[in-house]
Design brief:
250 residues, 5 strands, Cytidine Deaminase, domain 2, 2 domains, five-stranded mixed sheet, elongated
Length: 250
């Protein structure tokens, strides 16, 4: 085969790959990700760090290896690197896009009215906490208009539990000048059903915050694409009623 023929074949292959990428990008610009399969989203992401190579098979291999889109984004670096075709630039891109998404959701929540936007709250908490292998206890501090002041992980525990100290929670809330708080913690097992300890500590936290006039709006337990809301189940209201009865009895 002559050099000119070889160059012609390479040009055709290059143009074919470039055309596919162009179509993917045009498709995204026209309709966002709604028309994309998960492997196509990953493929589009990989093209950012792989300028001259077809990423379709690599994207499918990633989905095959890690099963779901979010597991690809959450995969450890060493596991990602085991997939043929994945290099440091691809890993950087995957890590960056996840971090950007988390930062975007966090900043979007800041200064928003949280009580009327529970879905955005859960979306952020799930992305932030779902891949944690240890229980983490997060506090969301709110101002008098229920706008987010700050989010802070106060305690991090073992595989199955964490120690939560109401005094430290109250101290942190006062330091942030919070008028109200929301509590959240994850269950690494994936089951968001609260334990007896979860109920007990929620009541202790409500009682401690009530003394310093800080309102507890919610305590959410994050599981595997599921959550348990103490407020939705009426437990927050009942705990406040119990606190009132205890104070009346003293």
């Amino acid at each position: 085969m002559s050099q000119s023929q070889s160059e012609s074949i390479l040009t055709v292959r290059r143009h074919k790959g470039e055309g596919h990428r162009k179509r993917l990008r045009e498709k995204f610009m026209e309709s966002g990700l709604i028309a994309f399969r998960d492997d196509e989203v990953i493929e589009l992401l990989l093209t950012l760090g792989t300028p001259r190579k077809d990423c379709k098979d690599v994207a499918r291999d990633l989905m095959k290896q890690f099963k779901t889109f979010h597991h690809v984004l959450e995969a450890p670096i060493d596991e990602l690197m085991k997939v043929s075709g994945i290099g440091p630039q691809n890993v950087f891109g995957i890590r960056l896009i996840r971090a950007v998404a988390e930062r975007y959701l966090e900043k979007r929540l800041m200064n928003s009215v949280l009580i009327h936007n529970a879905k955005e709250l859960f979306d952020y908490l799930y992305m932030n906490m779902r891949d944690k292998t240890r229980e983490c206890f997060l506090v969301i501090y709110l101002d008098a208009k229920n706008r987010i002041i700050e989010l802070e992980t106060l305690f991090e525990g073992t595989l199955t539990s964490t120690s939560i100290y109401p005094r430290e929670v109250v101290t942190a809330a006062l330091r942030h000048h919070a008028a109200a708080v929301i509590f959240a913690h994850n269950h690494p097992s994936g089951d968001p059903a609260p334990s007896p300890e979860d109920y007990a500590v929620t009541r202790q936290l409500i009682a401690a915050c009530r003394i310093v006039s800080i309102t507890v709006h919610e305590h959410i337990v994050i599981g595997n694409n599921r959550y348990f809301s103490f407020a939705d189940q009426g437990y927050i209201a009942r705990a406040y009623q119990d606190c009132d009865r205890d104070m009346d009895a003293t």
